[in-house]
């Protein structure tokens, strides 16, 4: 079975002439994912081509990360990776605490209320501030925004892709 890869960022541009790249983070753990010596995979969505790389250095800059990859030392070598995704293999994913989940574990889960009502499927995760918000695509097309707080999220079963929630007054 091919190893599973998880997206942690996207290369949006080059930076300077020494082979640095600008990366938009798609991970909850950028300091860990983009730390020196981290093993990542550059992935081209169109051609499905992959290139294994190692982070030499990275720093946060505005809403991006400026990253230097060990394998490249000038702009001409990294120019072709603009638009490519940065991925991490399953074996390099961090162990999570209890009640912590990867985005990829949550997206696609069915959501049911504690009263047994089928609410829909999680289509995306927003991180607007104090807590995450799960966007539930309901059968009738309208989206339901669920705050990820203990009073709402009662049970998360990633194996069965099923989440049980308490629908507080005013949520629907």
Show the helix and strand layout.
Elements: E1 5-15, E2 20-25, H1 30-33, E3 39-43, E4 50-61, E5 64-69, H2 75-78, E6 85-89, H3 103-106, E7 110-113, E8 118-126, E9 133-137, E10 143-147, E11 153-157, E12 162-165
Parallel strand pairs: 7-12
Antiparallel strand pairs: 1-2, 1-6, 2-5, 3-4, 3-6, 4-5, 7-8, 8-9, 9-10, 11-12
Summed up:
This protein is mainly beta and about 170 residues long.
- What is the molecular shape? elongated
Strand element count: 12
Strand content: 35-45%
Number of helices: 3
This entry's quaternary arrangement is single chain
Q: Helix/strand-derived class?
A: mainly beta
Contiguous runs where pLDDT drops below 50 for at least 5 residues = none
- Main-sheet strand order equals 1-2-5-4-3-6
Radius of gyration: 19 Å
Largest sheet: 6 strands, antiparallel, barrel
Approximately how much helix is present in the residues?
under 10%
Write down the overall mean pLDDT: 87
Distance between the termini: 42 Å
SSE pattern: EEHEEEHEHEEEEEE
């Amino acid at each position: 079975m091919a190893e599973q890869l998880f997206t942690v960022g996207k290369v949006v541009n080059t930076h300077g002439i020494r082979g640095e790249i600008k990366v938009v983070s798609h991970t909850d753990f950028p300091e860990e994912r983009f730390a020196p010596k981290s093993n990542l995979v550059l992935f081209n969505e169109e051609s499905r081509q992959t290139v294994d790389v190692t982070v030499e250095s990275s720093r946060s800059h505005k809403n991006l990360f400026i990253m230097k990859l060990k394998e490249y030392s000038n702009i001409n070598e990294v120019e072709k990776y603009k638009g490519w995704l940065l991925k991490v293999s399953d074996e390099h994913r961090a162990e999570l605490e209890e009640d912590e989940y990867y985005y990829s574990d949550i997206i696609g889960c069915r959501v049911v209320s504690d009263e047994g009502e089928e609410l829909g499927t999680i289509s995306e995760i927003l991180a607007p501030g104090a807590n995450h918000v799960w966007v539930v695509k309901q059968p009738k097309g309208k989206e339901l925004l669920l705050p990820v707080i203990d009073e709402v999220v009662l049970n998360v079963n990633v194996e069965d892709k099923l989440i049980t929630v308490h629908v507080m007054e005013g949520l629907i």
